[in-house]
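Expect chain and fold; see below:
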Amino acid sequence: MEYRTLPDTDLNVSVIVFGSPANGGFLSGEKQNGIEAIRAAYRAGVTTIDTAPLYGLGAAESLVGEAIACLPREKVQILTQFGLRWNIGQGEPFKSIAGPNGKPIDIVHNATRESVIAECEASLKRLNTDYIDLYQMHWPDDFTPMEETFEAVQKLIDQGKVRYAGVSNYSAAQMAEAGKHIRVVSDQLHYSMTDRGLERQTVRYCLDHSKAVFACRPLEGGLLTGTLKPGVNFPAGDFRRGNAKFSDENIRRANDFVRYLKPLAEDKKISVAQLVLRWTVQRPGITAAVAAAGNAVQAIENAKAGDIRLTEKEMGYIDSILPPP
């Protein structure tokens, strides 16, 4: 496994980050599979875990806490998020999601001082830890002054409950504004072979200002693995079910692109998914790739991408076949 240090910090992360399931274990049998997956990933060298209270409405964090209970805490990096709430009465609407019983639950933006502190305490309890290595603002909150939000995060840092502050889904301009109030060390962005629109501005900003970038959804929910087939029936609770992005047409389009990756993957004796993950972490400005895994086998396969190296020629070939950003 390859490890990288976030710029101007002492936080070392594995280039493959374990991404906890977005539904947090609502699906039958997923909890135990998730626990086994995290432990298998750790044995394969993945020391960094990304999660969020929103995932499974706290269930994902609890799953992570249970999974790492037998691991040395100082050798694991926990990344979690804040700013999206479902269990309070105030906040600006974000979206509705299906809860564990299938009923819709309203999610709201709330990054007020009191909310940030309360969320952190709840996350620490669910994760069964005394501190969070990287605390990330999950989505920009246009309704709470950044000064108030990050003043609360700085207080948590001063108390030793958080080591570093990060953000997710922030633009370059939002990163610059946040930096006026706290030292932001990273931005987590949706980034993949087929979705590179943030390279020119946000990733470039992070490069120019020594900020880490965590690429989330690099496999596009399986679209870039070549394993999805038109007509696939995703189970209830799976975020891909009914999602237009996973229509038969889009699956066919993705598979057409993956056809050009397969010869290189076969030549290197690796899977297409491993090739995609390795390409991602070798792109300029990308620090690590956040890859979800539903079981131990998938987790180990993802982890192997951290041992692969692509030559300049191989990277050039992939770049030559990429679709427009």
About this structure: The longest strand covers residues 92-98. Residues 3-222+274-309 form a domain with the TIM Barrel fold (CATH 3.20.20.100). The chain has one domain: 3-222+274-309. DSSP finds eleven helices and 13 strands in the chain.
